[in-house]
């Protein structure tokens, strides 16, 4: 009843996370559209930005599509490509894609007027899904290559955060970067280097610059270890 009384010209959603029933979609005089943060049909679902980073995609983008009964399956009105920089996190890429989404919406209005806007069916190939991460998928596996771990960290940002375990304590890794240098020692061994940790991975070191121990504020590894005698004996599980 509320929607019917409103009588919208458009229905526009972005990062809404729910499927609107057809009874609502039909209320919009000029159409119901969704801005999705990927180049559909790649990364359908609620977590496209994180999956694009984690997969190592060099380019992503936004898709303006007409909504239908499926999950991000509607026909495409316009798309805009956005490069993914090697240092992009989920947070920084979200800002870029939000700006691209605004551009795409106003381009559609300029190109097609009020609507309804023409749209083409999505390709039947190249479909990938972007589900929410499960908790175990956020845990760092130090046997993996440093670049893979770096992508995981950047895809998680602060929340939910990629994490590791030390002395039964969960520690989120907030900022890190691969180091092109042969590593020594067992996987997950962290050596203090200034205020950073150099952690042994499957193919080299990962330089960890900022962490967030459970129940504490974000800090550098150096601050975390200040006052401890066993600074050289950190082995992550």
TrEMBL record:
What name has this protein been given in UniProt?
methionyl-tRNA formyltransferase
Domain called Formyl transferase N-terminal: residue spans = 4-107
Q: Which organism is it from?
A: Methylacidiphilum caldifontis
Which top EC class is named for this enzyme in its record?
transferase
Q: State the InterPro entries in the record.
A: Formyl_trans_C, Formyl_transf_N, Formyl_transf_N_sf, Formyl_transferase-like_C_sf, Met-tRNA-FMT_C, Met-tRNA-FMT_N
Family per record: Belongs to the Fmt family.
Q: What is its EC number?
A: 2.1.2.9
Q: Which CDD domains match?
A: FMT_core_Met-tRNA-FMT_N, Met_tRNA_FMT_C
GO MF entry, a single one:
methionyl-tRNA formyltransferase activity
Alphabetically list the UniProt keywords.
Answer: Protein biosynthesis, Transferase
Q: Which residues form the Formyl transferase C-terminal domain?
A: 134-228
């Amino acid at each position: 009843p509320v929607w019917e009384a409103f009588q919208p010209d458009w229905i526009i959603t972005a990062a809404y996370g729910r499927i609107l029933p057809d009874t609502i979609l039909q209320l919009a005089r000029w159409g119901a559209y969704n801005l999705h943060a990927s180049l559909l049909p790649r990364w359908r679902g609620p977590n496209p930005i994180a999956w694009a980073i984690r997969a190592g995609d060099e380019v992503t983008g936004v898709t303006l599509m007409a909504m239908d009964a499926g999950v991000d399956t509607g026909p495409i009105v316009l798309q805009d490509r956005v490069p993914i920089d090697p240092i992009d996190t989920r947070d920084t890429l979200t800002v870029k894609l939000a700006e691209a989404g605004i551009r795409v919406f106003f381009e559609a209005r300029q190109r097609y007027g009020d609507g309804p806007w023409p749209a083409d069916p999505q390709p039947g190939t190249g479909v990938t899904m972007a589900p929410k991460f499960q908790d175990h998928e956020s845990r760092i596996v130090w046997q993996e290559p440093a670049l893979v771990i770096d992508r995981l960290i950047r895809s998680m940002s602060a929340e939910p955060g990629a994490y590791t375990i030390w002395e039964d304590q969960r520690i989120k890794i907030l900022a890190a970067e691969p180091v092109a240098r042969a590593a020594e020692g067992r996987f997950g061994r962290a050596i203090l280097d200034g205020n950073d940790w150099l952690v042994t991975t499957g193919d080299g070191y990962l330089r960890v610059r900022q962490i967030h121990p459970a129940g504490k504020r974000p800090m550098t590894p150096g601050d975390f270890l200040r006052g401890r005698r066993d600074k050289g004996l950190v082995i992550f599980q």
